[in-house]
Amino acid sequence: MSFADLELDDMPDWPWAPQVLVALxxxxxxxxxxxxxxxxxxLDELEHYKQQELELKQTLSRVAxxxxxxxxxxxxxxxxxxxxxxxxxxxxxxxxxxxxxxAMNEExxxxxxxxxxxxxxxxxxxxxxxKLPLDIELTGSYNNIGDYAQSIAQLPRIILLENAEWQRVSxxxxxxxxxxxxxxxxFKQGEKxxx
Length: 195
Description:
4 helices; 55% helix; disordered C terminus
């Protein structure tokens, strides 16, 4: 009997070998279909979950490191806040500008300097600060000018000296004509109120 003589309707009457062969072919076909439609998607999903697990472990590791550093960061934040408050106290308020100018003038007089000019320039607006320029021109000895600059640095408010120029009053004289632009800063009123 050949396979060509076998009909599917009479399968139960087939000899044992062809029945086993057809059963094996059906089994292989079911296994291939099961692998393609069931196992492969399940393996892909498993791989996706493994990747997701790895990403979550990395995220957890980063968060754990940040949590471990939290007390140190809190201490640094507290230190920065106290430094910020200290610097804030060194910025003059509007009502203090006249007394600041008077203190700078007094320091110059205490150091035997003669002022030819001391006045405020035009305010410059920056991010959250106002930059207040102060033009100063004076005459005196080199040491007295140095002492004056040191005494300005010791005032309780922040004052920066920039663009300093000096020259002798005359060729024979040791007296210098000193010109400098000083700056102090103020918080803009809107920014200060928001704190």
